[in-house]
């Protein structure tokens, strides 16, 4: 099976996300900090008239947060359950192309807290194919829900 | 001693023959230097104005080409498989508005009537979505962004675009396709809609070799004011941006004054106060040098410099204007500073030379007064000693030595006269003892003759010493004159070297300035490449969501991303090269500054040495005259002593004859007394120190 995936890097880890799960990719943007959120959530930003939470991918992976650069990108991801969108701040986008997917086989190395799921065969090796549900814990989802309600 | 007037004295001659010509020459050099620097500064400011106009035109061209690329990408998507996929095409257009608002106000697709053969079916099914069709089912969606009234957030809406056959965004690309035979993007003349000044970037759709419709975006022109204001704040020049047909689009100057009280936006150039300059402004062609000229400004009513440039894309015109008085202000400040410094230096130099001349004149006057008293026979005064090491000090010491020798000489002569007189009296009184006293008289005469010889030898030594001093002084003057000639040649070479270093420093400064402008252009290219990269990623995502119909556009998005990556890589290489060049130029500028300062110090030192040599020559020449006068006096005195010596020899001869001629003794004694009287009278005029 092959899918169109966006290859990105955060906290030194290369990951892939299926293009259909993304709304769009944005350049580094201005965001507003919010109180009472976990350390991995930078704050909120306005996208197409809606206030969305902005999550730092490096913090999610347990890596130190590097300084912001012009090459940074924000992946706007659409969640299905519950239906909402969120921004994912990544170090850079490496490629957008169609890749062959291997279901749970040959886990070269475990990518931080991520589960062993399908992986895409890329020139960076076997890269974990992660979706919104793989990145967000239940506690973080609850915190984002409270942040949206407060905004 | 005779009085010497100021004009004929040493100070007067030095002032009118040395200081005044030097002041005139320095004033001429300062005036020529200031005039050259004033011209150079004026040309530099005009080059900055031309570079600003060229830079604004280049940035304008980049923006036009960027949005033309977007319109061409939309057309390529239609021609690569999206044509006829009305729902997907409408969604793609909506996503463009969402992604690039507020830079674009709207995006549109306009098919020819029943171009895809689906007009009737779409009208019946409504699959393409509400607001995308006209009354006959023609696919004409126009997605536009509007800020809602609550908080400024954007909302996107769609409505059919009706009656576009007569509009420029539809007619222009259609006509260009018929003319060129291939689809190329077109930019319309600016127009105002909803209070916003904008242009349309449109590209024709060609299916099966036939015109099938147009796609494109409406772009806001508010960012052009940002370009003009940026140049205004950076260079201080007013900037005007005009459309290809000569309508004002952006201006930093007072628009009411230019348009005669009306709004300047979209007003034709010929209907403003700049109408008289319209032919010159609009005749500029793209791709050539910036048109730089000076005219009386019809609004400011004063001379202004204009820099006019036309963009290579679509022919937009950028005009930069700056008052000639502002340009020359910096040059006038530099001129005032040079004149002030030059005047202070000339006054200081003239004062120093007059002080030195006055000191020399005072010492020479003292020597002349001492010589005058000695000439009158007054040897009672003590010639003061001098601690100066120059020629005047040497002159005073020689005068002091001469005075002491004369005192000794005259004192000895007087004493000899007294002794002779006593002897003669004794001879006359005791003629009988004449024979016995003859021996004693002869001995005394021999002593006198020896003393006279010693005086003669001392006087001749003094004459030789004075001749030696005079010869050394003349040789010193000759050497100083030769040294002055060499220093004048060296000063001319140093002046040429100084001018050369200034020219090189100016050229290095121009290179540094241009490399900084290259860096600004590189930054703009890097931003465009980065935004193009993001655009290609989003285009690929949207194409994936469109399914099979987006497969063709996915390939286009990948190629666009590859081109953006290559552009970013090439930009990085250029940036590194420009940084290396800037580092080298900066080092060169610093080295040239240091070298130029050393050359200026060298010029000043050579001028000072030349002035000092001139003073030495003048002093030695004046001293030579004094030495000659003293030498002549010494010669005269030596001759007098020689006569005394001869007289003494005659006296000795007479004494010897006395012993042999006794009968002539009385007459000889009388002659001796007469000679002694003459001698005493001669030396009586000399007054000796106690």
Tell me roughly what share of residues is in helical segments of chain B.
Answer: 55-70%
Percent in strands of chain B: 5-15%
Mean pLDDT of chain B: 83
Helix and strand run of chain B:
HHEHEEHEEEEHEEHHEEEHEHHHHE
Largest sheet properties of chain A: 5 strands, antiparallel
**Using only CA atoms, what is the Rg of chain B?**
53 Å
Strand content of chain A: 35-45%
- Rg for CA atoms of chain A: 15 Å
Low-confidence stretches of chain B are none
Largest interface: A-B, 19 and 24 residues
The count of β-strands of chain B is: 14
- Order of SSEs of chain A: EEEEEHEEEEEHH
Q: Strands of the biggest beta sheet of chain A: in what spatial order? A: 2-1-8-9-10
State the gist of this model.
The complex is a heterodimer of chains A (151) and B (690). Chain A is mainly β.
Describe this structure in words.
- The complex is a heterodimer of chains A (151) and B (690).
- Chain A is mainly β and 151 residues long.
- Chain A has helices spanning 57-60, 132-135, 138-150; strands at 2-10, 13-18, 22-26, 41-47, 50-56, 73-79, 84-90, 92-102, 119-122, 125-128.
- In chain A, the strands form two sheets. Chain A has a five-stranded antiparallel sheet, with no helix packed on it. A five-stranded mixed sheet of chain A has the order 3-6-7-5-4.
- In chain A, β4 and β5 (50-56) form a beta hairpin.
- Chain A is globular and about 40 Å long.
- The relative contact order of chain A is 0.26.
- Chain B is α+β, with helices and mostly antiparallel strands.
- In chain B, 67% of the residues lie in helices and 12% in strands.
- Chain B is built from twelve helices and 14 strands.
- Chain B has helices at residues 10-82, 86-100, 119-125, 168-180, 222-235, 255-259, 278-282, 324-375, 391-429, 434-545, 551-660, 665-684; strands at 104-111, 141-147, 154-160, 186-187, 191-193, 196-207, 210-220, 238-242, 248-251, 291-296, 303-310, 317-323, 378-379, 687-688.
- In chain B, strands 1, 2, 3, 4, 5, 6 and 7 form a seven-stranded antiparallel sheet that branches.
- In chain B, a hairpin with a 6-residue loop joins β11 (303-310) and β12.
- In chain B, α1 runs parallel beside α10 (434-545) and α10 (434-545) runs antiparallel to α11 (551-660).
- Classes of the chains: A mainly beta (151), B alpha+beta (690).
- The A-B interface holds A 4, 6, 19-20, 22, 24-27, 46, 48-50, 70-71, 73, 93, 96-97 and B 95, 98-99, 148, 153-156, 530-531, 533-534, 536-538, 540-542, 544-545, 554, 557-558, 561.
């Amino acid at each position: 099976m092959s899918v169109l995936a966006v290859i990105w890097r955060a906290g030194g880890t290369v990951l892939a996300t299926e293009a259909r799960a993304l709304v769009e990719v944005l350049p580094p943007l201005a965001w507003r900090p919010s109180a009472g959120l976990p350390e991995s959530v930078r704050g909120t930003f306005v996208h197409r008239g809606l206030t969305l939470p902005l999550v730092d991918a490096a913090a999610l992976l347990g890596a130190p947060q590097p300084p912001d650069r012009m090459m940074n990108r924000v992946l706007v991801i659409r969640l299905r359950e519950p239906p909402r969108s969120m921004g994912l701040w990544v170090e850079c986008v490496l490629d957008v192309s169609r890749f062959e997917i291997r279901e749970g086989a040959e886990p070269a190395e475990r990518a931080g807290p991520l589960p062993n799921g399908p992986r895409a065969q890329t020139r960076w090796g076997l890269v974990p194919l992660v979706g919104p549900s793989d990145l967000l814990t239940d506690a973080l989802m609850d915190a984002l829900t409270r942040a949206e309600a407060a905004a | 001693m005779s009085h010497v007037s100021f004009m004929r004295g040493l100070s007067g001659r030095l002032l009118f023959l040395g200081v005044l010509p030097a002041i005139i020459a320095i004033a001429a050099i300062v005036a020529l230097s200031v005039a050259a620097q004033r011209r150079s500064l004026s040309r530099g400011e005009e080059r900055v104005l031309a570079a600003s106009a060229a830079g604004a035109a280049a940035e304008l061209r980049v923006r036009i080409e960027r949005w033309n690329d977007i319109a061409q990408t939309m057309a390529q998507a239609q021609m690569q498989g999206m044509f006829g996929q009305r729902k997907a095409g409408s969604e793609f257009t909506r996503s463009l508005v969402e992604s690039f608002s507020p830079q674009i106000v709207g995006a549109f697709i306009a098919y020819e009537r029943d171009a895809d053969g689906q007009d009737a079916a779409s009208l019946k099914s409504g699959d393409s979505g509400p607001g995308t069709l006209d009354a006959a089912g023609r696919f004409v969606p126009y997605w536009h962004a509007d800020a809602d009234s609550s908080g400024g957030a954007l909302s996107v809406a769609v409505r059919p675009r009706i009656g576009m056959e007569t509009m420029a965004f539809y007619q222009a690309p259609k006509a260009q396709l018929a003319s060129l035979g291939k689809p190329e993007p077109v930019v319309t003349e600016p127009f105002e809609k909803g209070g916003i000044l904008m242009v349309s970037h449109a590209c024709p759709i060609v299916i099966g070799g036939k015109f099938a419709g147009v796609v494109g975006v409406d772009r806001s022109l508010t960012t052009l004011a940002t370009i003009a204001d940026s140049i205004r704040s950076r260079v201080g020049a007013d900037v005007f941006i005009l459309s290809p047909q000569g309508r004002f689009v952006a201006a930093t100057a007072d628009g009411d004054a230019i348009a005669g009280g009306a709004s300047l936006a979209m007003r034709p150039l010929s209907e403003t106060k700049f109408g008289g300059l319209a032919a010159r402004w609009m005749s500029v062609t793209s791709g050539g040098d910036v048109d730089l000229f000076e005219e009386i400004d019809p609004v400011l009513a004063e001379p202004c410099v204009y820099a006019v440039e036309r963009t290579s894309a679509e022919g937009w015109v950028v005009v930069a204007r700056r008052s000639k008085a502002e340009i020359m202000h910096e040059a006038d400040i530099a001129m005032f500073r040079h004149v002030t410094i030059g005047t202070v230096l000339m006054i200081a130099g003239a004062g120093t030379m007059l002080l030195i001349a006055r000191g020399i004149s005072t010492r020479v006057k003292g020597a002349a007064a001492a010589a005058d008293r000695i000439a009158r026979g007054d040897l009672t005064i003590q010639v003061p000693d001098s601690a100066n090491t120059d020629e005047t000090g040497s002159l005073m010491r020689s005068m002091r030595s001469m005075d002491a020798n004369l005192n000794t000489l005259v004192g000895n002569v007087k004493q000899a006269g007294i002794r002779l007189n006593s002897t003669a009296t004794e001879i006359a009184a005791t003629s009988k003892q004449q024979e016995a006293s003859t021996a004693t008289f002869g001995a005394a005469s021999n002593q006198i003759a020896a003393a006279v010889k010693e005086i003669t030898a001392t006087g001749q030594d003094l004459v030789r010493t004075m001749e030696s001093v005079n010869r050394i002084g003349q040789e010193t003057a000759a050497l100083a004159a030769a040294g002055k000639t060499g220093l004048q040649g060296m000063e001319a070479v140093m002046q040429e070297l100084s001018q050369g270093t200034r020219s090189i420093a100016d050229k290095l400064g121009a290179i540094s300035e241009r490399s900084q402008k290259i860096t600004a252009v590189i930054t703009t290219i890097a931003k465009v490449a980065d935004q193009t990269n993001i655009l290609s990623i989003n285009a690929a995502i949207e194409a994936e969501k469109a399914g099979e119909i987006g497969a063709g556009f996915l390939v286009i998005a990948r190629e666009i991303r590859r081109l953006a990556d290559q552009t970013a890589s090439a930009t990085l290489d250029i940036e590194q090269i420009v940084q290396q060049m800037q580092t080298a130029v900066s080092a060169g500028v610093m080295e040239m500054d240091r070298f130029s300062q050393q050359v200026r110090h060298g010029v000043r030192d050579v001028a000072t040495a030349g002035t000092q040599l001139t003073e030495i020559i003048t002093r030695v020449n004046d001293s030579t005259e004094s030495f000659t006068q003293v030498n002549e006096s010494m010669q005269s005195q030596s001759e007098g002593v020689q006569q005394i010596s001869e007289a003494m020899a005659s006296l000795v001869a007479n004494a010897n004859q006395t012993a042999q001629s006794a009968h002539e003794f009385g007459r000889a004694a009388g002659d001796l007394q007469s000679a002694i009287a003459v001698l005493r009278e001669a030396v009586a005029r000399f007054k000796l120190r106690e």
